[in-house]
Write a structure and sequence with these properties.
Its EC number is 1.1.1.133. This is dTDP-4-dehydrorhamnose reductase. Keywords: NADP, Oxidoreductase. By secondary structure, this protein is an alpha/beta fold. The chain has helices spanning about 20-30, 50-55, 70-75, 80-100, 130-145, 165-175, 195-200, 220-230, 260-265, 275-280, and strands at about 10-15, 35-40, 60-65, 100-110, 150-155, 160, 180-185, 185-190, 190, 210, 220, 235-240. A six-stranded parallel sheet has the order 2-1-3-4-5-10, sandwiched between helices. Helices cover about 40% and strands about 15% of the residues. The chain has a domain at about 10-160 and about 190-215 and about 255-270: Rossmann fold. Strand 1, helix 1 (about 20-30) and strand 2 form a beta-alpha-beta unit. It contains ten helices and twelve strands. The chain binds NADPH dihydro-nicotinamide-adenine-dinucleotide phosphate and dtdp-4-keto-L-rhamnose.
Length: about 280
């Protein structure tokens, strides 16, 4: 991670210590690209002065991986979530508009209500059912209002070999426990962070706008857990349950499968989630 101001990079990664931030760093490192990566201490997007100070003129792409991602925590701390996921994103978007950079930003399937029965197109009406979803919707609006060049990339059910994520949680639980109940009435698309970073980079050559990027295929959290345990060789009795039987502070959309056609037209077919899961598991000891 560098804080060198004399150097004008092609890419600036914000929120670089998060799960997706690390995937982006590793991608740009592997391709030997010029980039600066800022963690939260180096660049806090809620700090009005920091954004302009750290993102100099000449930068071409600002990749925003910073967010408040604790979905249940957002219910109690919606103001803070909105400051980060809404206003902070707006500040990045205004800076990008001012210097002519493109903002690569991540939003979520949780901006949708979840009452559809076919994949949500990119222009489907959004109607979040949680504080997290509302805060992310505020970020999307702030970008649109800023007039900056952008790729607003909605993704879902993100995981990686590192960080806090469902795959690592379920690897642990299916190893430690004899039985486990997992909700089987929420359907969506898991997404490898490494796959997401790579596809996002490909989309830099595409038009501005909103894209959906996930792994291919779809499943419920229960089916996802079954496959994690199967691939890991964990012998755990996994039982399906309903959302009502697994109460949480935040409501989740029942159906959040997002249509991939715009992305696949620009970047090719999205790899199936089971294939990407195997790829990620192979990187975990
Ligand atoms: N995880 C998922 O399942 C999904 C995520 N997304 C979106 O993808 C993006 C990346 O998510 P993910 O990698 O999982 O997130 P993480 O929670 O792993 O990382 C977010 C990073 O943002 C940092 N951060 C928080 N607040 C600020 C701030 N004010 N200024 C600068 N940095 C800040 C955090 O730092 P610290 O840890 O120090 O607080 C953390 O390093 C987010 O926009 C998220 O909403 C979309 C769909 C699914
Ligand atoms: C741990 C556990 C979870 N679950 C359920 C609860 C919930 O409905 C579902 C997923 O739980 P999690 O809390 O891991 O996931 P959640 O925080 O809802 O994940 C979301 O994060 C944000 C950031 C996004 O943007 C979304 O795309 C999505 O990935 O699994 C079980 O049924 N059994 C279990 O043992």
């Amino acid at each position: 991670m560098s804080d060198d101001h004399a150097f004008i990079p092609v890419y600036v990664i914000v929120g670089a210590n998060g799960m997706l931030g690390r995937a982006w760093r590793e991608l740009l490192e592997a391709e030997q690209r010029d980039y600066l990566a800022f963690d939260r201490v180096q660049l806090d997007i809620t700090d009005p002065d920091a954004v302009a100070a750290k993102i100099p003129e000449g930068v071409r792409y600002v990749v925003n991986c910073a967010a408040y991602t604790n979905v249940d925590g957002c219910e109690e701390h919606e103001d803070e979530a909105t400051r980060i996921n809404g206003e902070g994103v707006g500040r990045l978007a205004e800076r990008c508009a001012a210097i002519g950079a493109t903002l690569v930003h991540y939003s979520t399937d949780y901006v949708f209500a979840g009452d559809a029965d076919s994949p949500y197109p990119t222009d489907a009406p959004i109607a979040p059912v949680s504080a997290y979803g509302r805060s992310k919707a505020a970020g999307e609006k702030a970008i649109a209002d800023s007039g900056c060049s952008h790729r607003t990339i909605r993704t879902s059910w993100l995981y990686a070999p590192w960080g806090n994520n469902f795959v690592r949680t379920m690897l642990r639980l299916t190893d430690e426990k004899d039985t486990l109940s997992v909700v089987n009435d929420q359907r969506g698309r898991p997404t490898s962070s490494q796959h997401l970073a790579a596809v996002s980079k490909t989309l830099l050559a595409a038009n501005d706008g909103v894209y959906h990027v996930t792994d291919g295929g779809e499943c419920t959290w229960f089916e996802f857990t079954q496959e994690i345990a199967r691939q890991a060789g964990h012998d755990c009795d996994i039982q399906p349950c309903t959302t009502d039987q697994f109460p949480r502070p935040a409501k989740r959309p029942a159906y959040s499968v997002m249509d991939l056609s715009r992305t696949e037209a620009a970047a090719g077919k999205m790899t199936d989630w089971k294939t990407n899961l195997a790829q990620v598991l192979s990187q975990i000891d």
